[in-house]
Amino acid sequence: MLHSQSAEIIPSRWYNVVPDLPEPLPPPRSGSEEKSSIELLNSIIPAEMLRQEFTFNRYERIPDEIREQYLQVGRPTPLVRAVNLERVLGFSGKIFYKFEGATVTGSHKINTALPQAFYAAQEGVPEIVTETGAGQWGTATSMAGAINGLRTTVFMVKVSYNQKPGRKTVMGLYDGTVIASPSDKTDFGRRVLREKPDHPGSLGIAISEAVEYAISNGYRYMLGSVMNSVLTHQSVIGQETIAQLEMLGETPDALIGCVGGGSNFGGFVFPFIPGNRETEMIASTALEVPKFSKGEYRYDFIDSAGILPMLRMFSLGSDFVPGKIYAGGLRYHGSAPSLSILIRNGRIKTDEVGEEEVITALKLFARTQGVVAAPESGHAIASALRYVRNPDNAGKTVVINVSGHGYLDLGIFGEKK
Amino acid sequence: MKIILYFTMGYPDRATLSRFIASIPEDTVQYIELGFPSPDPKYDGPEIRKTHAAASFDAEDLEEIAGVARDSAEKVYALRYVSDFIQEPSFTDTVRNAGFSGIIAPDLLTDYFQERIEIVTGIERSGLEFIPFINPSTPDPVISEVLRTAGSWIYYGLLPSTGIMVPYDVNAITERIHGMNSGRKVVVGFGIRSLEDARKISSTGAYGVAIGTMLIRYLERGDVEAFSSLITRFSEVAEDVQ
Predict the structure, then answer these.
(1) In CATH terms, is domain A70-106+229-415 a member of 3.40.30.10?
(2) pLDDT tens for residues A168-186?
(3) Cβ A56–B136 below 8 Å, yes or no?
(4) What CATH number is given for B2-240 in this structure?
(5) CATH 3.40.50.1100 residue spans of chain A
(6) Angle A64-72/A136-147 helices, nearest 10 degrees?
(7) Does B144 contact A at CB distance below 8 Å?
(8) What ipTM does the predicted assembly reach?
(9) Cβ-based contacts of A49 with chain B (< 8 Å)
(10) Hey, of A15, A17, A32, A36, which one would you mutate to test binding to chain B, going by the most B CBs within 10 A of its CB?
(11) Domain ranges, ordered by start, for chain B
């Protein structure tokens, strides 16, 4: 069986890795002496999200309404054996890919957008607010807002806003309002623009604007990545993969995914961690945003303005502004604290891949499997190619998380490429 | 259920703090934790942070405050960040000589995880109890390990930082505390803001509740009588539970 799709595969519980970490998750720290930025979360994110953020429960029940919404947006996503890719590579093992691009919004982001919008709607607020880099998170949030009866405002990093008009259109179809960040809608945005009117924006700035906008209007802010509760929601990816591999009678030797803030990767690999020391886990990120090789493991702000709490994580600095890289979703300066711990302790390995190699990998994947993967996911594919081309890994079973499709990122291939 | 009180040493000043501790009604408070003022009280909330910044404290203060505390509770514990005492080898001797029973180090497991065994061994060699501080982010295998080295009790923090109010699930906490089944007493703190909170925590089977942030307003006002009356009310809740 190459493809499995059954509602029963959607898990009934989310998995939270915190109780299974090798060492304690350092608590968030308030960056402000005067006011607790952790307490601030009370007024900007849904209370149920806050509870899940700090819970020690290994499992959290997925509300029936959310399971129903998961089914509506295309879960379970397929697990496919990439036989054509294996053949072209002459690989003696097996390559599978979990295709999160098959959700209606085209990426894994919907897995947490739905519960967050659902919890916000339960609290009776009229609007949810967030930021987006490449546009995938803003798309997912707009869609989740629409089906939960909420208005959505999305602060989109200006460079992506200008380069990806298709994303704006999709968010608009879902009734989302998209604002280029830095913007004149917030104090922080106005300050950035005063200093540098042509600022290309960064995810950190967009987060700061979204949080400020949510606070000043009494709306709920949606968390796209990094926070533990988000990784918990994303565990549907890994749990489905486990169930699908079991149905196929397969045991993976290696799991490979890409890392921006760490949510698709954590959601994919964390459910495999309990009782498992054998499966290799490889976190692939952009050479141009070298958070694991050049970043420091320290407390740093989630956002540029320092409104949100500080987290202990691998970080290139909250003021890090990458160049106009081809994979907008990997621009973020930090990585989820739970993932950072597992990388530090050696349980999860890392890999960094540059643009040329990623584009070559995306083309090979398209030509063999027909899938136009997102540039972010291209890192996972490129790292997987490195893995299977290593003679030591002959005969192994590899699973790649293809976190999204790339139909709205075709510009990276250029006209002649 | 027992009452455990937290004060930052030297806040608001030696005389006021001593007066407060001396006013604790007899047989109401089991343990007193005395926090050593820190230049970076990293895991404390804004209110306790202010007490660290404002505290005036020297060796004479230590002797007097610890002495008064010993007369007002069964045991007295020092609470200090490892980052503040790791470069101070005489610290354990200082606190033992001042009559403290043990040390609580809130950052040991998060910031000094690799060095934890060496640090705990040092504390125990000095004849002091090591009181582990655990919270919702402490993984289960780590809890199992620290329970083996713990002194007579463990401090379970409800929240990621003092004085902040994120929702917590009493039933889940109950299950976790019972699941520990360690033979150690469990004191629950970080987030107890009212008698009602204490009553809720008592239902978890915890040995005691630790109160700190909510005492600050009485210390600020110098209102000893209201403080003493608050402690009496807490002890009534505690007795109800028993």
Answers:
(1) no
(2) 999 999 999 999 999 999 9
(3) yes
(4) 3.20.20.70
(5) 11-64+109-225, 70-106+229-415
(6) 120
(7) no
(8) 0.81
(9) none
(10) A36
(11) 2-240
